[in-house]
Automatic annotation (TrEMBL):
<dbReference type="InterPro" id="IPR006119">
    <property type="entry name" value="Resolv_N"/>
</dbReference>
<dbReference type="Pfam" id="PF00239">
    <property type="entry name" value="Resolvase"/>
</dbReference>
<protein>
    <submittedName>
        <fullName>Resolvase</fullName>
    </submittedName>
</protein>
<dbReference type="InterPro" id="IPR036162">
    <property type="entry name" value="Resolvase-like_N_sf"/>
</dbReference>
<dbReference type="GO" id="GO:0003677">
    <property type="term" value="F:DNA binding"/>
</dbReference>
<feature type="domain" description="Resolvase/invertase-type recombinase catalytic">
    <location>
        <begin position="2"/>
        <end position="150"/>
    </location>
</feature>
<dbReference type="InterPro" id="IPR038109">
    <property type="entry name" value="DNA_bind_recomb_sf"/>
</dbReference>
<keyword id="KW-0238">DNA-binding</keyword>
<dbReference type="GO" id="GO:0000150">
    <property type="term" value="F:DNA strand exchange activity"/>
</dbReference>
<dbReference type="InterPro" id="IPR050639">
    <property type="entry name" value="SSR_resolvase"/>
</dbReference>
<keyword id="KW-0233">DNA recombination</keyword>
Amino acid sequence: MAVYGYTRVSTDRQADEGESLDVQRRQLEGYALMHGMALDTVYVERGVSGSKPLGERPEGGRLISMLKAGDVVLTPKLDRMFRSSLDALDNLNLLKGMGVSLHMLDLGGDVTGNGISKLVFTILSAVAEAERDRIRERIVTVKADQRERGRYLGGRIPFGWRVDEDGGLVEIAEQQAAILTMVAMKNEGLALRTIAERMTAQGFKLSHEGVKKIIASTLKAG
């Protein structure tokens, strides 16, 4: 069994003030001594924001890569290791699955295996779900705003348009004319395959499924 510590400060200034790295390390050493543990290595994350997922941080990634079943990880506070409840929940589940214990000093100790772990997981799950909802709402709001302003939302560029230097959608005149032709042919009762064949003959290589999507999106937008 190996015992690892993890400390973090988000700025170099914090390294010397407030919750300094030295203070965090002493807290870990004191906790380990009180619980009969020998602290093997302390991973020190200097000048890294807590908003970055643990596994994407230099020292956080190294720590996770070293862990084996039966190992113990100590960290002074929840926000030293995680800032997002989503990241915390994902990593707690990961550590439990690996058979690794995580002790958070501010939460009373082992949050993966003792009596408080169920409470911690319940609270984090609730907060994480709220975070997911907020993220989804932000994405929907941003996409709606981009759509209203004719911004490119990513993915395949729709037929009839191109993306300009500022990320806006700009009409391609000849393709827009082709769209009107396809809609007119559909209104005349022509089959999608027939429309696709006629458009291909005019230099627009489209499948019948492509024609179907273009007409559907045009009618929806109209």
